[in-house]
Please model this.
Amino acid sequence: MTTVSEACTEDVMDALKGQYSSFRAFTKPDILNALMTAQANGLVEESRYDLDENNEVRMYFRANAESIATINRYIPE
Model:
């Protein structure tokens, strides 16, 4: 969320699959839940939604500059 203007669940999964794909919680519902928790906590906001190729709703989220700074404090260098 800190390096793109917006991302959906699939985008997040693609970005993290190299490091986290073996984790049990690395599922579409769990990632969406994490994004919605981040939204409820004010770290990201919903930017838009559309339908994917299976006609399922796909939500996109974005982080503002303050949120990006907060998120980056938790990412090791």
Remarks:
- The CA atoms of residues 16 and 65 lie 21 Å apart.
